[in-house]
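Input:
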Amino acid sequence: MKISQLSVFLENRPHSLLEPLQALAAAQIDLSGIALADSEQFGILRLVLRDWARARALLQSGGWAVTVTDMVAIQVEDQPGGLVRILEVLAAAGADIEYMYGFFVRRSGRLAMLFRFAAPERAIAALEGAGVTMLGEDALY
Amino acid sequence: MLKERWNDRAGGFHPVSAPDFLPRPQLRELQSRRLQAMVARAWDKVALFRERLEARALTPDDIGGIGDIAALPFTVKADLRDTYPFGLFASPMDEVVRLHASSGTTGKPIVVAYTREDVEVWTEAMARTFAACGLHRGDILQNAFGYGLFTGGMGTHYGAEAIGAAVIPVSGGNTERQIMLMRDFGVTAVCATPSFFVHLVEKAAEMGVDLKSLPLRTGVFGAEPWSDGMRERIEAETGIEAFDIYGLSEITGPGVATECTCHDGLHVFEDHFFPEIIDPATGAALPDGEEGELVLTTLSKRAMPMIRYRTRDITAILTEPCGCGRTMRRIRRISRRSDDMFIIRGVNVFPSQVETALLEVEGTVPHYQIVLTRDHGLDQMTVEVEVTPEVFSDTVRGMEELRARIGRAIEHVLGIRVGLRLVGPHSIPRSEGKARRVIDKRHD
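Output:
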């Protein structure tokens, strides 16, 4: 049920986003989802992709600091209130959200939201209990 | 053969270490005799020295012994530059067998010379250094100090051969090959600058070589200031015992002082190199125990006697007897050079303090540099610290907390708040010799 996300440390300087993506492109690695967190001082690039293990090895050998984080992918109904329903379940369960981002799954045309929870097990249990659909790796890439 | 193994389980010492244990009165007598001969020789052969004595209305006869040393004038680095290349030599070139020179990055290079006897004394001092670090015949020493004009490589090389170790003269650089040699040759000891060794440790991990599984057990580090925190980190990560050694080309090169296995200060080989501590502002001699600038006088050097040479290194002479039994006085580990100091908002800052602060933050490795800039006439200091995979967090909050922890640690040590920038792994250039910790852009 958990999705592996790569996070890459980016310095706050020109080309710092371009260079790791160039490295992945040169290796013909395809991205499924991407999000960028930025602060005044630095950025954190977050990537969701099928080939995450190869991408991690490639980026690490290229000198980037990379970590792997377990994410939870939730299918969101593409209609008013679709996300609200899920957030209500999480709020009721007291699940802390560290951050989240969404993207369309090209193949199925579905909308996926990726959540980083402080305590994923607890959030997953609450979502399962409420009948929310979570997406595994096969459904996502 | 058995007699040549020392510092072993039996606790014996190699004969080369005998002078380390001279009774103090006998040592003082030797120092007095050697100082008188040195002053007489310099008076005879070195014009600058003679002029300075005459200006003080002194002759060699006024120096009755080592107790009179403070009457003599200082020698400073500028004297070596002003007399470039051979102006301070006391031996004709047909008695000189070796010349070394500084790299000259801060102006004209300085040149130092050795007669055959000088090389022998240097070799003896380095052999005593290695013996104090527990090396012996049978050790395989990888010498990563630079060979060439720099005194580090050849000084350690001769000393290690003299105690019978097998020396690999690999010099600096070629990190991957260094690790291959270390592994394939079963290297037991390494000589390097501490910053280069940290680089080697990092590279070994990348190559999947576990240094703890190798026969490597001793590291002899010098040529730049490093902290006890760095020592703890090196020892914990590699399982070796790390020794600090001290020296400078003007006096002989490496071999002026060394730690013993007690690791509580460095014994100065004061039968050849006499240490004093002075107040760097007034030049007044300070008593043992007080902190000030280290001043060294060569007592046996022939080609280039150095009398009361101001090292710019800040330390103190430790007075308590050392647990190892050596009678040679110790200097406290040198972590600061007055040359390295800079002033930020009225506060004196040494690069080593930044290193100490970084080592307090768990998970950070001391890959850092200090960038000095000038903004509207005010000096600004920014510390750049590399983010390693170990401390990198995927959350902004986690990274902000890391920044705050590092910032607090630096502020705690320096007493002022400075700029802090997190940079990517490997973005700070690795040194293959002395680390360049400070990038000064104030005059760009």
